[in-house]
Amino acid sequence: MRQFRLVASFALAAALGACGGSGSSSGLSTSPGGTTQNPGGGTQPGATTVTLANLAFSPSSVTVAAGATVNWKWNDCTGGDGYGGGGATCIAHQIVFDDGSGFQSASQDQGTYARTFSSKGTFKYHCAIHGSAMSGEVIVQ
Q1: Of all helices (H) and strands (E), which one includes residue 122?
Q2: Is 47 exposed, middle or buried (0-12, 13-18, 19+ CB in 10 A)?
Q3: Which of these, 128, 69, 132, lies nearest to 102 by C-alpha position?
Q4: Which of 16, 75, 86, 96 is 20 to 30 A from 127, comparing alpha carbons?
Q5: Are 29 and 106 in contact (CB under 8 A)?
Q6: Alpha-carbon span 55 to 78, nearest angstrom
Q7: What's the number of CA atoms in the CB half-sphere (13 Å) around residue 7?
Q8: Tally of CA atoms within 13 A in the half-sphere of 11 that contains its CB
Q9: pTM
């Protein structure tokens, strides 16, 4: 019986390892040009962060190297703890890129959005809810 438990434990560990292995469960999607986005997912480590607060992107312009990831973090809440908890009121935003690429975040009032830029250029974006008064750009060198 002891040997059966040991074998069963190893089988369970192997099955769990296969489920959580290096598969593509990151939530990232890739465009044909190699640009990736992580809609609503967590932030990407080592990336540049843009905060959405006070109806603005801060900073409104960032410069990154090709292959870099930019994280947008929603932080436009008032009351409560200021981060969406404890009775806070949060303002929804939706990031839409102006280049017609179709890259956009979900319309949300909390959370994050990440996009990796594989090619050089200037990528302008705005909030679909608040219009061009709330805009920014990513300059990829």
Answers
A1: strand 121-127
A2: middle
A3: 128
A4: 86
A5: no
A6: 12
A7: 4
A8: 6
A9: 0.67
- Rounded-to-integer distance, Cα 94 and Cα 40, Å: 11
Token pair recorded at residue 122? 């200037």
The answer to whether domain 33-140 has CATH 2.60.40.420 is: yes
136 CB burial (10 A radius; 0-12, 13-18, 19+):
buried
Buried-state track 91-115, b at ≥16 Cβ within 10 A, e below 16: bbbebbbeeeeebbbeebebbbbbb
Distance (Å) of CA 93 to CA 10, 30, 69, 79, 107: 47, 23, 20, 18, 6
